[in-house]
Design brief:
Blueprint (H helix, E strand, L loop, with lengths): L2 H11 L22 H15 L20 E3 L5 H8 L7 E4 L5 H17 L4 E5 L11 H12 L3 E6 L9 E6 L3 H15 L1
Parallel strand pairs: 2-3
Antiparallel strand pairs: 1-4, 3-5, 4-5
GO molecular function: endonuclease activity
Pfam families: Smr
Keywords: Endonuclease, Hydrolase, Nuclease
Amino acid sequence: MNGNNESDLFREMMADVAPIAHDTVEKVSQPHKPTDAQLARQTAAQKLSDSNPEYLSLDYAEMLKPDDVVTFKRPGVQDGVFRKLRLGKYDIHARLDLHKYTLKDAREEILTFLKQCQRMDVRTVIIVHGKGERTNPPARMKSFVCQWLEQISDVMCVHSAQRHHGGTGAVYVLLKKSQDKKLETRERHLNRRA
């Protein structure tokens, strides 16, 4: 077949097809504004992390064993990010050692430490809770610390540390980005696209 025959055949086959009136995407001139429900959830999450430590229970925690590996990841955390945390590939910018703390003091110290880290834009920290092999019940502090970290909304993921950082007696913690860092990242990505 030559080009004219193909063209004629195509026109004949498309004779009853109507063209699309508008096939471009309109740009939205106004930026996204959060809904009232989104604002309410954001406020509730901020109140939870800014409130007193009483919401972190001292009464009950699912008990772990001294050598149990701790792992926790919130939905939305990328697998690659979690893998790097698990393998200890992120630089540790702050450390909290809870040896010789009571549960109540440890709870308050963890909240204070994590809030301070967020204010300073520190995202990766290590918390040393010990294995608790000689406590009764075993791994008491470890069990409570791990439960608390899951309840703190600013904690994105947690994993037991590598052996050279304390092994199962410590956990790596990845914190949520501060609002300033989120804006900075968003602007950097928008500039790349432009």
